[in-house]
Amino acid sequence: MYEPRVLSGMRPTGALHLGHYHGVLRNWARLQNEYPCLFFVADWHALTTNYDEPGSIEKNSWDMVIDWLAAGIDPSQSTLFIQSQVPEHAELHLLLSMITPLGWLERVPTYKDQQEKLTEKDLSTYGFLGYPLLQSADILIYRANMVPVGEDQVPHVEFTREIARRFNHLYGREAGFEDKAKAAVKKMGSKKARLFNELRTKFLEQGDDEALGSARALLDEQQNLSRGDRERLFGWLEGSGKKILVEPDALLTAASRMPGLDGQKMSKSYGNTVTLREDADSVTKKIRTMPTDPARVKRTDPGNPENCPVWQLHQVYSDDVRRQWVQTGCTSAGIGCLECKQPVIESVLAEQAPMRERAQAYLDDPTLVKNIIADGCEKARKLAGETMREVREAMGLASS
Ligand code: TRP
Ligand code: SF4
Asked: How far is the C-alpha of 258 from the C-alpha of 95, rounded, in Å?
C-alpha cells in the first residue's frame, strides 16, 4: 500500500564503532539500493535522557553524519537530515499527544527498563515518557511503511501502529465519507469500479482475504486517484474511515555478530570497541593487546580457539583456509598469538581504509556535510508538510 518508504533514526551518542557498521549501517546501505530511504539524527531523543549535559549533542550529530557517509550511506540515494531541523516532528508529536492514553506510554517496556538501568539520571520527566510517541511522530510524518530497527525498538514500532490506528479511527470519519468514497470509485472507470466493488463485497461479507489483496493491488495501480481518494478507498475497502496515517512494519535488523575486543558483544558501555574511523596505530595496538586463551601462558603452550576472543574476530574476517590455519596452529602451538592476530589487524584496517578515505573529504570541507544535511532537511520538511496539512485538517485546525 502506498509508495514504499524506509525510515530510521539514530541517537547521536558519540563515534560509531564496527558493531554499528556490521549491524545497522551495512543494512541501511543495502536498503538504499532498493527503496527510497530517509535516515535522520534523533537529537531530540538524545535530549530525553541527556537533558542535563547537552554540550556534546551537536558535535556528535555532525560526527555521526560523517560516520554514515564514511560507511557508504549515499546522499544521492538516501535523504539524510537532523530531527530538530524539521520542527514538524514536534508539531505532530504534540497533536498525537492529545489522543495518546498515558497507560499506553507507561506500558512500553523501555520506559521502566531504562529508568531502572540509568539510575544516575532522573528520568521521571514528561519528555522521557513521551519518547516512543516522538518516535511515532518521526515515522508517521513520512508515512514510512518500513522501519529497520533492532529488537529493542520493535515495541516502539508496534506502539506506532496502535497510534496510527487510533488516529485513523478518530479522524478518518470525515463528513460525507461514504459519498466521497463512492465518487472516488467511479473515477477508476466503470470496469475497474465494478471489479473493485465486487472484491470489496467479497471481503466485507465473506471475509475473503484474497479479494482484499486483489482490491488493494487494484488501488495501487490507480495512478489517477488523488492521495485523499486513495486514503478513502483503502479505508472504505476495509469498512473503516480514511487512512490518513500509515501503519509501519518493523524490519528487524539481525543482531550484530560483531564481537568486541574482550569477546563480549561490541558496545561502548563495555569499553571494547574499535571505532569506524579509528587511526591505524590505535587499532593495531588494541588488537595486539587483546586477551587470548588464558591456557597459552608460554608460546609453546597449545591453546583452544573456542576460549579466545581473537578467534571470534577470525570468524568475522577470515576465510576457511585461514580459519583452518588458526585451528591447527593454535591447538599445536605451531603459531604464536601475535602471528595469529596479524591477519585480523590487516582485515580490520582494510575494512576501514575506504571509510577513512570517504570521511577525509568531509573533514577537509565541512560545508559538504552541511549542504547534504540542508538538502535532506528541505526534502524531509516538504514530505512532512504534506502529511501535516492533512493531519491539521482532520483534527479541525485552521490551515493557511
Ligand atoms: N529510538 C531509536 C533508537 O534508540 C532511534 C529513533 C528515533 C528511531 N526515532 C526513530 C528509529 C524512528 C527508527 C524510527 O535506536
Ligand atoms: Fe587465540 Fe590465535 Fe592465540 Fe589461539 S593462537 S589463543 S586463537 S590468538
From this structure: 40
Q: Where are the domains of the chain?
A: 6-172+248-256+365-394, 177-237, 277-364
Average pLDDT rounded to a whole number, residues 52-65: 96
Instruction: Give the span between the Cα atoms of 228 and 244, in whole angstroms.
Output: 8
pLDDT-based confidence at residue 138 (cuts at 50, 70, 90): very high
Q: Give the residue-averaged pLDDT of 74-85.
A: 98
Within 6 Å (CB) of ligand 1, which residues are found? 7-11, 42, 45, 135, 138-139, 147, 149, 153
Residues in the chain, how many?
400
87 grid coordinates: 520542527
> How far is the centre of ligand 2, averaged over its atoms, from the C-alpha of 292 (Å)?
6
Ligand nearest to the CA of 149: 1
* 277-364 maps to CATH 3.90.226.10: no
Which is more confidently placed, 206 or 66?
A: 66
Tell me the pLDDT band of 1, cut-offs 50, 70 and 90: low
Q: Which fold is adopted by the domain 6-172+248-256+365-394? A: Rossmann fold (3.40.50)
Whether 400 shows a pLDDT value over 70: the answer reads no
- The CA 306 to ligand 2 mean position distance, Å, reads 9
Question: Across the beta sheet with 6-10, what order do the strands follow?
Answer: 78-82, 37-41, 6-10, 146-149, 249-252
Mean pLDDT of the chain: 95
Give the span between the Cα atoms of 324 and 52, in whole angstroms.
51
User: Atom 15, ligand 1: which residue's CA is nearest?
Assistant: 10
